[in-house]
Design goal:
With 135 residues, the chain is an alpha+beta fold. The protein has three helices and four strands; from the N terminus they run ααββββα. It has a domain at 43-134. The N and C termini lie far apart (85 Å).
Length: 135
């Protein structure tokens, strides 16, 4: 009888190979996660200017009909379309200033913070960023 001794190699991964994959995955995650958070914040930030422009358009339409921004018929949405901002207004018969405040439960934006829009179209922000960054 001719018996051949063969070395059996077990199938699968060694612990070293597994730890290398886990390390690489961790490094890629540490690089990608902050970038992901930045893009999510920018996407949510776009909800504020949209809401302010819609409210300003409604107020301008009302002004053309009633000749006053503070007329009882001048209504607008108090939240942004996606719900990331609350919209408030300070108005007189001939002026208005709309403010979009981020809702802490859904969105925190330290760069832009509160966004503003006036009856003359002047855009503003109260954070550390610039108007160009926020609008």
């Amino acid at each position: 009888m001719n018996f051949k001794l063969t070395k059996k190699r077990s199938a699968g991964f060694s612990l070293i190979e597994l730890m290398i994959v886990v390390g690489i995955t961790g490094i890629l995650g540490a690089i990608a996660f902050p970038s992901y958070i930045h893009y999510v914040t920018e996407a949510k930030r776009s909800d504020g200017p949209i809401a302010l422009m819609n409210a300003a358009q409604n107020l301008e339409r009302c002004f053309s009909q009633t000749n006053a921004y503070n007329h009882a018929d001048c209504a607008f949405a108090v939240t942004s379309p996606e719900g990331h901002y609350a919209i408030t207004i300070a108005r007189t018969p001939t002026t208005f200033t709309l403010t979009a405040t981020p809702q802490a439960a859904t969105h925190t934006d330290l760069i832009c913070a509160n966004l503003t829009l006036t009856h003359t179209g002047v855009q503003g922000e109260s954070g550390t960023g610039t108007v160009a960054d926020c609008w």
